[in-house]
Amino acid sequence: MRKSAALVSTVLLAAGIGVLTAGPAAALGGETYGCQVSPGPVGSYTGNCHNSAKFHGPYSAGFSVGGAAAGTTYTWHVPAGYQTAPGLCGTTSGCRVDGLTGDDEVTVSVTLTQAGATETLTATAFILAVCGNVYC
Asked: Could you state, in order of their start, the residue ranges of all structural domains in the chain?
């Protein structure tokens, strides 16, 4: 019985040490990332997005990181030729791409850095063309 108790204690201690030493590396990975198209209803920024308002444009696509730890730095990657909103897409947790029109799509990624670890998140905004009041 003593051997069993000692073995269980050793296993629990080893598991605890593993959790304690994983602290800094676990800083990244729990974030949410996604986009939202405007005009349109306000919702959560999770995953890819598309225009829900049947409007001829132009549209804006907002991209946002949620749940990042304090001290996280952001490096945004927006394809050449797309217009970004002033003051965004720099070192903030959000980025906005303006001037999107029908049958357009833009994939925006952001690299997060925390305590020397990096993680890149990607989302795509799809702008569906509108013919009258329906999607083409």
From this structure: 28-135
Fill in the amino acid letter for 76.
Answer: W
Q: Are 58 and 101 in contact (CB under 8 A)?
A: yes
User: Which tokens in the block code for residue 16?
Assistant: 């605890």
**Number of alpha helices (DSSP H) and beta strands (DSSP E) in the chain:** 1, 10
Gap between the Cα atoms of 132 and 2, Å rounded: 79
Q: In degrees rounded to 5, what are phi and psi of residue 82?
A: -100, 140
Beta bridge partners of residue 130, listed in sequence order: 135
70-108 pLDDT tens trace? 999 999 999 999 999 999 999 999 999 999 998 999 999
CATH architecture under which domain 28-135 falls: Sandwich (2.60)
Q: Which amino acid is at 118?
A: T
